[in-house]
Amino acid sequence: MAFVTLKDVAQRAGVSAAAVSQILHNKGRFSSDTRQLVLKTVEEMGYVPDQRARSMRSSDTKTVGLLVPDLRNPYFADLVASMEDELYRHGVSTLIGTSSESVERQDVFIENLLGQRIDGAIVVPQGVKSPGVQSLIQRDLPLVFVDRRVPGVESVPFVVSDPYTGIREALEELVRLGHRHVGYMSHPSLESFSIDERETAFREAAADVLADGDGVVAACDSTYESRAAAVEMLLGAGVSAILCAYSPDAFTVIGLLHDRGVAIGERMSLVSFDDISAFTVMTPRIAVISQQADLMGKQGVELLLQLIRSGSMDGGITHSVPTMFIKRESVGEVSSASVANQSAEV
């Protein structure tokens, strides 16, 4: 049979279903022989207690929902792995979903999630106060937002990265290596508060760190054509280094520079947000601004478990994790010939 029920075990053992339940919970007054018979029957039949039935008798389901924008993005895969490992360590199961960077799909998953008996949820939101987000808040369900903020939401605690520290560290190292013209690829089409905040941080740091405040910003979306146009614009501006706000953009930039014969780390330095494993196995290895996904995930889980235990929200306090620049071979000294050659090719 596909699923063994409590009644199946009771029928095989020749006792009542109530007796099986009591013995499994180490309750009731039964002889040693009866207890051994029931436990042996449970093992032989492979009976697994129905967690849904248990949750109907208890307010604690030991299950939380996790929602991220895109599990194909290695950064979010690492973030989910960090949170799931930490929850498992505390004996909590997870229901995982992805919004595919779509508010509509985000809200559909939230609606399905609210139909489950869960203790709480950790969400990487799309950055807008959508109907689904409002439903989550109105349920007074223990809830934590991680990685991205939602403007206008004041009651939900956030765990987010501070982009200013890592961007400034990256620019200071580039200046030390002789770079004066630095390009930045933004991604406003995602409508992500956190990613837009990175552009603001870059503009402020560039104005302060670069001698002439010469930071060049090129916007792109998720299409190859848009990313290629952004790279053309940056090369035309004569930049000697490019910083990508969104790691999927960096993968396309790497391919575009390769096709042009522009050697990364020699003629063009490259830095990307997100310390993902793929960047460490490339040649050259790609320098990154790490959001410390593991630390962010653990803090998100710790905060959610505190909310579940206390039964109250913490008033929307923001918990910031500083970003950090990790230098690798994709960042090198600038040469005057490299900028001249790049401008001549455009």
Automatic annotation (TrEMBL):
Cited CDD domains: HTH_LacI
SMART domains assigned to the protein according to its UniProt record, in alphabetical order: HTH_LACI
Kindly give the InterPro entries that the UniProt entry links to this protein: HTH_LacI, Lambda_DNA-bd_dom_sf, Peripla_BP/Lac1_sug-bd_dom, Peripla_BP_I
**Which Pfam families would you find in this protein's record?**
LacI (PF00356), Peripla_BP_1 (PF00532)
Record keywords:
DNA-binding, Repressor, Transcription, Transcription regulation
HTH lacI-type domain span? 4-58
Give the protein's recorded name.
Answer: Catabolite control protein A
| Record lineage | Bacteria, Bacillati, Actinomycetota, Actinomycetes, Bifidobacteriales
